Amino acid sequence: MLVALDSPLLVIHGGAGVERADLSADDEVAARLALESALRAGHKELAGGKPALDAVTAAITVLEDAPQFNAGRGAVFNHDGKNELDSSIMDGASHKAGAVAGVHRVKNPILLARAVMEKSRHVMMVGDGAEAFAVENGFRLVDPSYFRTEKRWQQLQRALQEEREAEAKGISLVLPGKAYFGTVGALALDAKGHLAAGTSTGGMTNKRYGRVGDSPIIGAGTWADARCAVSGTGWGEFYIRASAAHEICARVRLSGQSIARASEGVINDDIPKAGGDGGAIALASDGTWSMPFNTEGMYRGWIGSDGVPHVDVFRTPAPRNTR
Ligand code: ASP
Known about the structure:
The chain has helices spanning 25-47, 52-65, 109-119, 127-136, 150-168, 236-241, 244-255, 259-274, and strands at residues 9-18, 85-91, 97-103, 124-126, 184-189, 195-201, 222-224, 228-234, 278-284, 289-290, 297-303, 309-314, 320-321. By secondary structure, it is α+β, with helices and mostly antiparallel strands. The mean pLDDT is 93. Residues 15, 17, 70, 181-183, 201, 203-204, 213-215, 221, 233-234, 236 line the site of aspartic acid.
């Protein structure tokens, strides 16, 4: 599909772990509506002349608040039945970045990642320290039960059961990709031609204590520079080993590859060859973008200067603008 678009432009994803068998018609409608409101919220910022960072923050905040996605409310549970949230943000123009990992009580981790970027001397803060920094900066903490949804709880119970059955057979269970992830992310290109990227997640169902995936790691799950921005969703260990988000942008910058070729090469060739799966969204400063994924579906959407949101879930084929 070819689409000619002018900036401003916003591209989002709601995770590559979506499966038809696990998605009722009502759930799909709710997810599509949430994606549309995230697109509208980000577009409002861009249309008002705000920077790409504000659009990314606005869109991700909406997705974190929507229980359909594995970020903020509705995040997946770890092995101990807790929600441990990770998030990161990067500004392509300044190369500034902020990230948080392993927080339990911050309603919108993307806002805290941005505060780390703008109000601290650091790039990444984790756990209790990140939450202390949140309180110092005026964030109101929520009770951990805020993040709980019954659907995610049942996913954990199924994962624990599968693990017990595998152990009983003496098999060491390798976490499959399906229904285990669903991170959210956003990329924006503002009127000045600046890019920003952000990602937020609960990580992977049944992850062990302290496990951190790619989403809060700058260069793995999130990257933005002057020409290229990426947010990933998938089996985080593989994205970290591939430095996936940075690798895509490095291919654009150093090898002159198109955003589509670079992102498909990393996401649909390198990651599966290594044994992982997932997807990503990638946006270039010339307004070309791509949304590769190798799972059954990936919640995704985009909105251009006309303000009309476009969303999709399953393979249709996945759209890309290769103007
Ligand atoms: N990439 C995330 C992680 O590994 C999971 C996801 O995309 O949903 O933590």
